[in-house]
Design goal:
mainly alpha; 8 helices
Amino acid sequence: MNKKTRAKICLILPFLAVECVLFALFLAEDFAGASVGDNVALKYATVMFAMLFATVSFALFDRRDFQDGLMLVVALALTLVADLFLLVLDDFYIVGVIVFIGAQICHFARIKRNKVWWIASISARVLLAVVVIIVLAALGELDALYAFVAIYFVQLVGNFVENVVLAVLAKDRGARAQAIVLFVGFLLFIGCDISVGLANLYGVAGEFEWLFYTPSQVLIALSLGRMYETENN
């Protein structure tokens, strides 16, 4: 085990330990009714530590791929801001969703693709968002919040799908590992948003939101490409 690998382990293990403790504490309240402190603060702290971990990892390990690391840090910072509105303040929902769109655009910018793939991705995302908005309008359910939610969710699903494709096509072991971590993270993110939708529409599954969300942010924070670099890369 070389010095850089040991440094990565020394950074990752404390991060995972802190996240697991916070995760266990708020789940104990969500599912067992235990009184463990400020539930909102515990949940928000998991997002904050994910952003801080990504920032430190970027500074230590990912500077050679500056754009990838920078976009991840900005995406997680925007996620932290969005959760300030949606979780902590529980208000200004449109602003929170718009900030989340910005975060997904940053994740979109991280995906390595050629020009044809880039054009196809943009076109598909725009077309799908327009179709969803038209369907909502036809159903009489369209308002500003739902329109922005549609745009956001299309970007999230697009990022998931493209990372699945990257995981399948990647020839480099490190790139494949990064794509797998990301698509699992985005899949959990989608699970969180489905839980949010079910809670808002039908009053069910709300307790599952953060069961999906915190692990998704942890995995996304762990997705810096240089974290998967080996001596053979």
